[in-house]
Design brief:
Layout lengths: L2 H5 L6 H5 L1 H19 L1 H30 L1
Length: 70
């Protein structure tokens, strides 16, 4: 999660890491990245629902045609 900041840790002075603002910025960045990934679950659910509706409609059409031919 903090890989971006840890890769540059050797470039920073220890006083920078001791500063509270550095930790707050890191926590804010991590929260923003985490909140962006939550939106993907909705689109997956919506796609599954759309596929289910299409399968349901095709099943009804198939059953109606099968019933007419008998």
């Amino acid at each position: 999660m903090y890989l971006d900041m840890l890769t540059q840790a050797s470039l920073l002075d220890h006083t920078v890491w001791a500063d509270a603002d550095t930790w707050n910025t890191a926590m804010d960045l991590a929260a923003k990245k985490k909140s962006k990934s939550k939106g993907g679950g909705f689109w997956i659910f919506a796609a599954v629902c759309c596929i289910g509706i299409i399968v349901l409609i095709l099943g009804i059409v198939y059953m109606m045609r099968k019933k007419k031919s008998q």
